[in-house]
Amino acid sequence: MITERLGGLAFGGDYNPEQWDEQVWEEDDALMRAAGVNLVTVGVFSWALLEPEEGRYDFAWLDAHVDRLHANGIAIDLATPTASPPPWFTLAHPDALPVRPDGTKLVHGSRDTYCLTSPAYRDAARRIASALAERYGDHPAVALWHVHNEYATLCWCDHTASAFRVWLQARYGSLDVLNEAWGTAFWSQRYTAWEQVLPPRATQWHRNPGQALDFSRFFSDEVIAAYREQRDAIRAFSDRPVTTNLMMPGYQNVDLWALGREVDVVAIDHYPDAPGLDAAADVAFAADRARSFAGGRPWLLMEQGTSTVYAGDRVLAKEPGEVLRHSLGHVARGSEGALFFQWRQSKAGAEQWHSGMVPHAGPDSRVFREVTETGAAVARLAALAGSTVTAQVAVLHDSDAWWALNSDGLPSSELGYHSALRAAHRALWDGGVVADFAHPATDLSRYRLVLAPSLYLLSDEGAENLRRYARDGGTLLVQHFSGVVDSRVHARLGGYPVAALREALGIRVEEHRPLRRDERITLSDGSHGAAWSESIRLEGAEAVATYTHGMLAGLPALTRNGTAWYLSTRLDTADYTALVSALLDSADVARLGLPPGVEAVTREGPECRWHFLLNHSGDPVPLPLPVHDLLTGRLTRDVPAGGCVVLEER
Amino acid sequence: MITERLGGLAFGGDYNPEQWDEQVWEEDDALMRAAGVNLVTVGVFSWALLEPEEGRYDFAWLDAHVDRLHANGIAIDLATPTASPPPWFTLAHPDALPVRPDGTKLVHGSRDTYCLTSPAYRDAARRIASALAERYGDHPAVALWHVHNEYATLCWCDHTASAFRVWLQARYGSLDVLNEAWGTAFWSQRYTAWEQVLPPRATQWHRNPGQALDFSRFFSDEVIAAYREQRDAIRAFSDRPVTTNLMMPGYQNVDLWALGREVDVVAIDHYPDAPGLDAAADVAFAADRARSFAGGRPWLLMEQGTSTVYAGDRVLAKEPGEVLRHSLGHVARGSEGALFFQWRQSKAGAEQWHSGMVPHAGPDSRVFREVTETGAAVARLAALAGSTVTAQVAVLHDSDAWWALNSDGLPSSELGYHSALRAAHRALWDGGVVADFAHPATDLSRYRLVLAPSLYLLSDEGAENLRRYARDGGTLLVQHFSGVVDSRVHARLGGYPVAALREALGIRVEEHRPLRRDERITLSDGSHGAAWSESIRLEGAEAVATYTHGMLAGLPALTRNGTAWYLSTRLDTADYTALVSALLDSADVARLGLPPGVEAVTREGPECRWHFLLNHSGDPVPLPLPVHDLLTGRLTRDVPAGGCVVLEER
Amino acid sequence: MITERLGGLAFGGDYNPEQWDEQVWEEDDALMRAAGVNLVTVGVFSWALLEPEEGRYDFAWLDAHVDRLHANGIAIDLATPTASPPPWFTLAHPDALPVRPDGTKLVHGSRDTYCLTSPAYRDAARRIASALAERYGDHPAVALWHVHNEYATLCWCDHTASAFRVWLQARYGSLDVLNEAWGTAFWSQRYTAWEQVLPPRATQWHRNPGQALDFSRFFSDEVIAAYREQRDAIRAFSDRPVTTNLMMPGYQNVDLWALGREVDVVAIDHYPDAPGLDAAADVAFAADRARSFAGGRPWLLMEQGTSTVYAGDRVLAKEPGEVLRHSLGHVARGSEGALFFQWRQSKAGAEQWHSGMVPHAGPDSRVFREVTETGAAVARLAALAGSTVTAQVAVLHDSDAWWALNSDGLPSSELGYHSALRAAHRALWDGGVVADFAHPATDLSRYRLVLAPSLYLLSDEGAENLRRYARDGGTLLVQHFSGVVDSRVHARLGGYPVAALREALGIRVEEHRPLRRDERITLSDGSHGAAWSESIRLEGAEAVATYTHGMLAGLPALTRNGTAWYLSTRLDTADYTALVSALLDSADVARLGLPPGVEAVTREGPECRWHFLLNHSGDPVPLPLPVHDLLTGRLTRDVPAGGCVVLEER
User: Fold this and answer.
1) B408 and C350 in contact by Cβ < 8 A?
2) Distance of alpha carbon C327 from alpha carbon C370, whole angstroms
3) The pTM is what?
4) With contacts defined as CB-CB under 8 Å, which chain C residues touch A105?
5) Complex-level ipTM
6) CATH class held by domain B2-152+234-384
7) Could you tell me which CATH number the domain at B598-649 has?
């Protein structure tokens, strides 16, 4: 693993020396040493330099930097530059540019202006990956391969149409099966020849949900195939691990369970989307996801910002202490280090206002001082390398469900998948519990509690798996509008959700009753809900809380059938947190009683356990006994306001 | 008429057996009988099945269903499937796809992906209509022909440009006349050759209002021509009535007065756009419109939802009792039945969340029980067939005015036509009065009161007609920004509105003074207005209320000249309702004093009158005497909360 | 100058007789005399009449109107009609139509449907300008040439791409220099051949800020080149002054400092964007800008509306008295007259709801009476012609800064340039002070106070200029996010702002800290801010006010270094006005103590001064002594509510 090569956890970031001159490189060498940097990502945006004209590679520039970094004791995460084709690519391959659903063709001028399915692009990407691997595959500085960057660009062009058809032929075998799967009997969409099948381009009314879901699945498979091509080209010349960095949690263009199986180490990028405590909870969310996609193995935080919080129409700065707390928040949940985008804040270009480890203001700055402090802390945690994190609770997470919930024509605009996952995870985080994410069809038996929010699409296997889990005593909370369509986005008939879940939950949902915008409802237990309600018939379950007004008055809102619970509305945050907390207790999930804003996570190695205490609040948190803080090497009697303490337990 | 063939009112809905298998068909047969279904619409989305490749028709599938339905005693409203061309059509006729104003070409993937003006589409549509009529034209099960579905797709392609020019040549004869009509002297738009004339495609600033209005008129005529082509192809083989179902009231792509003259029976689709009492009022609005477009003759509710309320970004469910109340609301105002889209809620496809008579949950459901109850109620009303409804009040309704009010560059974004019609009708509905809609240039002498909201465009004939109506003692309320442009969208000069109206109203509007967003004004009578005000000079009228502040302080806001009233602002709902109520009284319009939320409508036959009492409130409404309720066959002393009573008066 | 030819100030407007018939022309002659009109703009939208087919000019129509106007004693501002090519132009030159960044091609149907960079358009424009000049260049009625109208149409077509490349080649000489300037090392954007360089068309993520800024600069230069071509074609035949009318202040497609140097007289169009006092302040803003772009020389209000206030989604009417107050507001600040768009409100066409001097209602109207009153007032001010206005305060204004602030990827959506300029000017207006605008790199020594809001981009020369200004004792207020990028949009390193300003201000900004939406902060002096904050280190300055909470608590918010002030947040309006007022006092800027809403401005001639007193309030303002009002020729003891007084001081 990479940590063995580094002799500890990774610390560093994207390094783009092509943006700077020699004098800066020299300063970089010194500052990297001062900051404790031991790994940098090089070459992410260097295609134009490395292949100045098609087919002619020029590695002299890169040779020099690789050697310089190596001489400075810094290992390299070597990137293939394929996320940003140079301008010459546009002119050489106009058919390989991305096309939007309405036919608009995008051109270079930012990055990611390629169609992933176009043969010219795929060839060019594979060739440069191969050339890089041939040249640097056994260079001692190279510790990791970083294929591409944040695969995200979709396309609706004719190449995509062809590839989509090939994918559909493999999936369905015949048009008859496809027609049945997509329900093309509706709206006279029956296909009679494969060339009639198109990506979901601009059309007059709602898109076909089966077509839309399959297009998402197809594109995910294309991404993975494109990744595999580069990975395999690299492996032909190099024995170093290969990965690609995943986009932020709000994007969902790839089935991350599948991609997680293809990378040697899961790597993620993470930028909070709200400040303060929300940012800390978002760190935990992203980290728990990454660890889960990695199958519980250690993973790597490939990008974060020293001072970048995306908050809608603005980018907020981070508060003092957050660089350390967020970095350790990731490490605590399994990351083998903390990397940033990027080493130096760019002085020019589209991301000149994206923060860097060395900001525009230079090293004499709060940001660089906190970077240095964080580098020192990470260095002290070298022994953690390879240790893992155990969770007793899981939140179900399925790309199919997410994609299907993007269908046109759903009953409400308030059925968001990402927000539902976030809310579930946040209730657990507020409850002091570390959670895994889990695919609905995987073995859940190691969890005491499983939450299933917004699981609109649930496969037959998934449903049976949940039934079995609850039957065997697992505590399960299924939330509204879950299990209502199958893997082909066909509605479950005879009452929702799918039969196996109806049996497990002891209920039958007869009707969905979306609530009006801004409507709030009160349940019999005093809790409040919004957005959604359902008409439930009890078939074995008991009603824990009922609706109190309207046509649902007296009907069940929250039900329980042994350990299987069903919640048919979107509870207010506090009420939902209280419900989850009660379920944690009833499922005997162990937790510490920590003050609000204080996070405790444990990493476990074969001989040691490390307890992370992250104090996101403004008050120091006293400890019952003085303890030895691994970060400082000193005894401490509290976790300082905004500070962190790590205890080693042998 | 269709009711003779059915032996009563129609009850049923769209039936799409191609979405289901044989086992379901058998259940359908039984459930339709149970629900009292006697008419189903078949084939709306069956083009791909009926013409699997261009020019090859395959009716075996449809034969079987037609015979099965007939054997089950259910009549058929046979649809031509032309609203949804199959995917093969896209590939065979790429020039026949719809193009948006910005040049975006739409492709199949939903429905309605055709250009109505393209010869290939028109030919294909006429051919399949003819083939269906030839095969089923005298089948005993066929009771009605359903051409197309909700004509709505506009196009800006080159075929459309050519057809638009032909239409303009017929309308104007010469470019000189067109140039004068469109005011092309402004902005240097003078046309010197017909090929320069285009549909209003994407351009730099505001569109020419004359061009935009004529494009709306042209497309309406194209729709009617397309309908006529199919209708005439059918009539060559069949003596059954022919119709097409009109879109919801918010759409206005066709001049419904003109289309109403072409169909054998006016048929509408209706889905409320707000819940509760607003939905009931919307039913009345849609039904009164349909009856008016039908020239007072009975008409047919072709589509409604059992549980579909479009409320902005969500689709709300209906409340218990609404299926019956809405169905009878339509019947009370002249519908010869109550049909739904669709019999079974689809399990797949773009409208899988659109409600059905048999919901996903199956027949053991509130919805199906209410459907059955409604079917029984409709069956008891068989004697009503052919009876009519008389109104003493009319709201003026003109497509030209609507379209012209969509011009770019109007003084305020709060000048909505549909909302103004809705507000006027709602004030009458709240006042307990059944209203007609009427074209401004038709004979109004049978009405005691006429409301003219938002009649921006008013033709010379219309103005003269209103002048005559008021002169002859009719009570007329003209509302703000009416009568200000003529049929060519030329402003009326010398003071608004058009001279004939100025004379009738005894006023001259010198200036429009739009109000600021969220600004509210107070009139001297204590009422409040918003959105708009006007500077009025009295020329014979008296000021009933004046403005109280600003530069208009002391100037007239509401005027009266004999029976001709002018209202120059948009009154708040309660104030407007009070004004309309006062006008109803002053015009001696008869009305019952019913509690709020209780609706009374009367249908009149040659020997009988039927009084519908629909209680939309949550409280029972006591009746002065016990009456015999036609719906139950029993005596009742009240109209139950949420319930309906129908009295037969011989 | 034009006023010599007119014998006084100009009064009139756009006159489009092609929209009317002979009977109206006769009425026009009489009404113009009645209103005191002495100058009309003719031909702005007459291309289709003047060149009915390509290359064939027909001036008979125009001859007649020119002679008629001349006979009526009215001078002509003769327009080239090039802002609105006729429909034939679209068909003859499809390659000369404008194309949006996403590739959408616009067609005729409104106005301005041309690509300014296309050779066919430029040729056609130059030819018709030349033909007009040849025919009318020495006609005694022609007093002024009006090239084009409101240059505003951008284009992203292939002609534009070619022209952009030529411009870039001239600017940068080599691709290496361009690559360095644009920072193409980021995101692999390095150009290796000129044909790879494109306008900033639709792309996947953020645009390159250097490319975007250069495209704005390029298009500005194209506009100026297009103007110069027409101007020079006219000068070959005519000795009358030439100008073009600038768009409203919110548009910024042209570097108005540069264009101001090319026109013989600066001419602007002005329509307020808010009613009441805001409109009056907007008049002052627009007028002070126009005077500044004219280098202090008199200028001309080419267009205003008699009753047109653009307020978001509606067009409000003007209040009584505003026609006069706004007209005199412009004249007071240097306009040599008051012209309107347009003489008669159009009865048809896209701007039929744009107000006119003769409204739809005709001359018997408030509007025409106020026009007549204003014409009489303007006539009484003939002696002012050529007099100037002196300001002691300047607001810095730079197109590069404006354009750069339109970059993608800035830290906040609340960094608006236009709104910041407006706020600064408004604080001065509320403080009773007349302000100039000034380019950052020009001599500022005549100003006592200089405000620098939102000067995101500041060139090295500009920075040095400001340093020198403050060093020499000028009072300077630099506001947040200023001086942070150079002329290539490269960030200033080592701390913001640029070094020369850091030295002048005695501070170093280490970090920007955008505030959350709706977040408000309190400073130690009790003032409040929003949108933005910064982390400042004092390097010689003193903290006048500090932040009171958060991580910036105790750090400077407002600093002072001698006469150089820095404000790091966006103060609330009242607090900002108070700060500016204090700076006015400390800089010894003379001002009268006038009541709120009363505006005083002085024009200075060689022998006379004229004091304008404009009372925008609803109360009369008493004067200390009875004075002789030049507007009425009578003594007055007050400025009436909503009225104006002009005093002549010899």
Assistant:
1) yes
2) 11
3) 0.97
4) 103, 202
5) 0.96
6) alpha beta
7) 2.60.40.1180
